[in-house]
């Protein structure tokens, strides 16, 4: 499902002191000063900001020069292996982490969600918003891991291949094509303006730039033995066990503002160690066999949090768990029935009892980690707080009268079919809880469990009333995917067909101004929840633990997520 | 052709329909259970066109019998196709992981045998005494303890405080024999305990039955040393059914290895199967299932041969049957 647990907005950005510019400033300066003049200054900003910018959301601040040891090997434990290391062939979270180190993207998101140079150093958007021109960083001597120079042809190849092969083609909106203007510039042509292009292209795991013609490798070979320009290169991949990356000694791409090192990356090797079972994974961290744990298993978060051996980091999630009611199938096509369901579910209990507190209750279809999350406004203005009495009243008013254990209307029982994945355990347990909560207000829920990937397929067949599912992405664009009519019966599992919602979604995607787009999104969230078209549950937090002797772990909001390449040992 | 050889050929021929049956069942389960492997491989966000293209590439648009024949003709040559998840050759994937599972299973079996033989024999010889009670309670506990829980206990109570055993992963004996022992011991105990308990019970029961046989009384009446009667005559007869069970247990060991590999983070066949099942990577599932079937058949064949060696009557009867 491509649930991206690694990218999120820092819940409390704190004292982030990014020196980069937000998009409008970036673009405006480009228009005033000209791309050529601006490029180097931006690059200078990024690398010069290193000493001050502490992108950490917690207390693992570094000491800069002196008192720092560069770790020879950093072991990061994960529950599963990567599948393929080709950005266009996978949506796997494990692969995404590794690829964020192997590749570089054109632009990047730094502290406080500012755009920063990567393989591109500036961009310009045409007045009508349908053409983006990106100035490439071709003078810095950036090379691929095989020694080939980075050129405009690599960018054209990468995006043409993206359009042809990527599993997330929607992430480039209406992109029609990409052209090389000259050796320094490429243009991207869109049918409609697309506001998320920079945010998405900053997501290295999907938009990492590949060498032209995959450096002579076949698709299959490349996915096993990738070549990028990133701070690390693949040394060894023992399938199912570990992926070893070594420092790219020729790394020349401008570094993010949060990175403190003068000559990043720091650790000589980064090892992604697969430990499927939670107990040895957590014990490995606490005994020092493992340096970093990502994610922290919810059932062990208290132990990790209370341990002196590791620093525990928690960030607001950019994914959402929700119950999608079929808006076109009786009786969930009735708004009072959907509203009753929303009132009958005790979300706080789900967060506390099942996720062990590793998440936040969500009152809108937007994940809590995305701005503008209008959950509080929605709760105030529309209101679906836990209130079983209100749920009973709504059902009774709609003619569903209690008859024994369950409710009936015209001799027909209020019986809903619900489907859920059987893993991870939190999903299955929350589905069982929800079924029990609904039966408390007289709704008989017939729960079907399937393999996790099969549940949305079952729901999409159109004969099931409810699904407990989840979705995540690093921008609010996730709502397009979740709610647009064009995705009805596919990823729009509510089968929602609402012109007003579609209009808001299109408007948001075409609005380049961040504040204006935020307003549209607020209206959208209110509209969706007025209809009670979907039933948000919670946003699981992103939780990472790092051995306490380490500094230099950063988490950057938005497309960047975890930054592993700056980690060092703090000397006593 | 000697009787032994004829028996062997006969048994091998019988293995063919068993393997064909296993292949039909495996293929059938993968193809007739709900869920489109192409959709699984590409994820929910892939377009129908991409899914259709992959279905063609995977040959899923061909009639089922053609797909089955493709599968069988490949399997006979040791080619199970490519993983849908990673595009790797399934045979190569199995070959990479088999050594870990083999090391774990053999070590588990070794622990089961080494523990069960003395405990079972002592339990039988000292029937009703303290040692017997200890062996019976121990066997009961061993058989009732789930291996994943025992594995977690071993990690928390042995590996973490002692620091001599790794918490996760396994080193192959070919790489470093000392590390291989320390890294295999705890998972092998987790895997072998239930088998040890079962064998203990079986051996104790077998010994007790034999000890009450007429020939034991006769031997003792002739003045043969009681220890000789117990450890030579009785043990040899009591061990026959135990050997059958050891052969059958190879299969359960492979099943147990799935769980134990998961707990201890061992990159073996078991973990690969779990991941393949979750992603409906059917070439991998088919490959592993066929491998397990072959191991089962081979183990049973081996047991029959050992049996025949220990008790020649079986070869003659079985061979002609």
Explain how this protein is built.
- The complex is a heterodimer of chains A (572) and B (321).
- Chain A has 18 helices and 27 strands.
- With 572 residues, chain A is an alpha+beta fold.
- In chain A, strands 9-10-11-2-12-23-13 form a seven-stranded mixed beta sheet, with helices on both faces.
- In chain A, a hairpin with a 3-residue loop joins strand 9 and strand 10.
- In chain A, helix 10 packs antiparallel against helix 13 and helix 12 (375-381) packs across helix 18 (514-531).
- Mean pLDDT of chain A is 85; it is low at 1-65.
- With 321 residues, chain B is mainly alpha-helical.
- Chain B has helices at residues 3-32, 37-42, 48-58, 64-76, 90-125, 130-144, 147-162, 177-211, 214-221, 226-264, 269-278, 282-310, 312-320.
- In chain B, helix 1 (3-32) runs antiparallel to helix 4 (64-76).
- The longest helix of chain B has 39 residues, at 226-264.
- Chain B is globular and about 85 Å long.
């Amino acid at each position: 499902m491509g649930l991206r647990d690694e990218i999120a907005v820092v819940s409390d950005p704190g004292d982030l002191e990014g020196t980069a510019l937000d998009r409008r400033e970036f673009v405006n300066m480009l228009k005033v000063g000209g791309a050529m003049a601006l490029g180097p200054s931006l690059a200078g900003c990024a690398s010069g900001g290193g000493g001050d910018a502490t992108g950490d959301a917690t207390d693992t601040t570094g000491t800069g020069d002196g008192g720092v040891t560069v770790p020879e090997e950093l072991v990061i434990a994960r529950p599963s292996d990567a599948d393929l290391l080709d950005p266009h062939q996978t949506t796997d979270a494990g692969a995404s982490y590794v690829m964020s180190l192997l590749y570089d993207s054109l632009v990047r998101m730094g502290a406080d969600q500012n755009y920063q140079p990567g393989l591109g150093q500036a961009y310009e958007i045409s007045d009508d918003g349908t053409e983006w021109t990106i100035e490439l960083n071709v003078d810095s001597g950036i090379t691929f891991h095989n020694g080939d120079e980075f050129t405009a042809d690599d960018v054209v190849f990468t995006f043409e291949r993206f359009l042809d092969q990527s599993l997330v083609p929607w992430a480039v909106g209406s992109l029609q094509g990409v052209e090389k203007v000259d050796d320094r510039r490429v243009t991207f042509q869109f049918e409609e303006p697309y506001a998320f292009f920079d945010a998405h292209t900053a997501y290295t795991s999907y938009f990492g730039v590949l060498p032209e013609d995959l450096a002579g490798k076949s698709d299959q070979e490349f996915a096993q033995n990738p070549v990028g320009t990133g701070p690390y290169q693949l040394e060894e991949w023992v399938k199912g066990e570990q992926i070893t990356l070594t420092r790219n000694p020729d790394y020349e791409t401008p570094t993010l503002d949060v990175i403190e090192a003068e000559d990043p990356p720091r650790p000589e090797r980064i090892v992604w160690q697969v430990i499927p079972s939670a107990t040895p994974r957590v014990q490995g961290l606490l005994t020092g066999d493992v340096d970093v744990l990502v994610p922290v298993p919810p059932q062990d978060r208290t132990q990790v949090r209370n341990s002196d051996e590791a620093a525990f980091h928690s960030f607001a999630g950019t994914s959402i768990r929700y119950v999608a009611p079929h808006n076109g199938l009786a009786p969930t096509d009735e708004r009072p029935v959907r509203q009753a369901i929303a009132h009958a579910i005790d979300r706080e209990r789900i967060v506390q009892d099942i996720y062990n507190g590793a998440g936040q209750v969500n009152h809108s279809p937007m994940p809590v980690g995305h701005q503008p999350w209008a959950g509080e406004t929605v709760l105030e203005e529309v209101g679906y707080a836990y209130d079983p009495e209100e749920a009973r009243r709504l059902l009774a008013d709609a003619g569903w009268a209690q008859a024994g254990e369950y409710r009936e209307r015209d001799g027909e029982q209020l019986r809903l079919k619900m489907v859920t994945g059987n893993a991870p355990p939190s999903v299955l347990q929350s589905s069982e809880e929800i079924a029990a909560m609904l039966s408390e207000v007289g709704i008989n829920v017939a729960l079907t469990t399937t393999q996790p990937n099969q549940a949305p397929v079952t729901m999409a067949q159109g004969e099931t009333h409810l699904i407990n599912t989840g979705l995540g992405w690093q921008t609010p664009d996730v709502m397009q995917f979740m709610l647009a009519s064009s995705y009805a019966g596919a990823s729009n599992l509510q089968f929602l067909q609402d012109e007003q919602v579609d209009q808001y979604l299109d408007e948001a995607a075409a609005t380049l101004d961040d504040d204006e787009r935020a307003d549209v999104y607020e209206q959208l969230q209110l509209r969706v929840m007025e209809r009670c078209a979907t039933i948000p549950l919670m946003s699981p937090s992103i939780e990472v633990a790092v051995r306490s002797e380490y500094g230099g772990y950063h988490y950057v909001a938005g497309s960047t997520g975890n930054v592993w390449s700056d980690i060092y040992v703090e000397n006593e | 052709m000697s009787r032994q050889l004829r028996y062997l050929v006969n048994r091998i021929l019988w293995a063919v329909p068993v393997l064909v049956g296993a292949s039909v069942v495996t293929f059938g389960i993968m193809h007739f259970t709900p869920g489109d492997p192409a959709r699984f491989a590409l994820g929910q966000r892939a377009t129908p066109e991409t899914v259709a293209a992959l279905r063609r590439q995977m040959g899923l648009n061909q009639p089922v019998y053609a797909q089955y024949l493709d599968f069988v003709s490949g399997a006979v040559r040791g080619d199970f196709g490519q993983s849908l998840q990673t595009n790797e050759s399934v045979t190569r994937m199995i070959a990479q992981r088999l050594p870990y599972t083999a090391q774990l299973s053999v070590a588990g079996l070794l622990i089961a045998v080494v523990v069960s033989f003395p405990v079972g024999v002592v339990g039988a010889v000292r029937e009703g005494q303290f040692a017997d009670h200890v062996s019976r309670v121990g066997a009961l506990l061993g058989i009732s303890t789930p291996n994943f829980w025992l594995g977690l206990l071993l990690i928390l109570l042995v590996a973490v405080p002692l620091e001599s055993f790794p918490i996760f992963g396994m080193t192959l004996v070919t790489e470093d024999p000392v590390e291989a022992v320390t890294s295999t011991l705890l998972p092998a105990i987790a895997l072998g305990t239930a088998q040890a308990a079962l064998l203990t019970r079986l051996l104790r029961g077998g010994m007790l039955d034999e000890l009450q046989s007429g020939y034991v009384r006769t031997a003792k009446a002739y003045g043969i040393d009681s220890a000789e009667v117990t450890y030579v005559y009785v043990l040899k007869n009591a061990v026959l059914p135990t050997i059958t069970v050891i052969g059958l247990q190879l299969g359960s060991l492979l099943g147990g290895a799935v769980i134990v590999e998961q707990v201890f983070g061992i990159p073996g066949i078991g973990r690969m199967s779990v991941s393949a099942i979750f992603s409906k990577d059917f070439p991998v599932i088919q490959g592993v299932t066929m491998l397990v079937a072959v191991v089962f058949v081979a183990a049973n064949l081996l047991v029959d041969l050992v049996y025949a060696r220990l008790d020649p009557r079986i070869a003659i009867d079985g061979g002609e049957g």
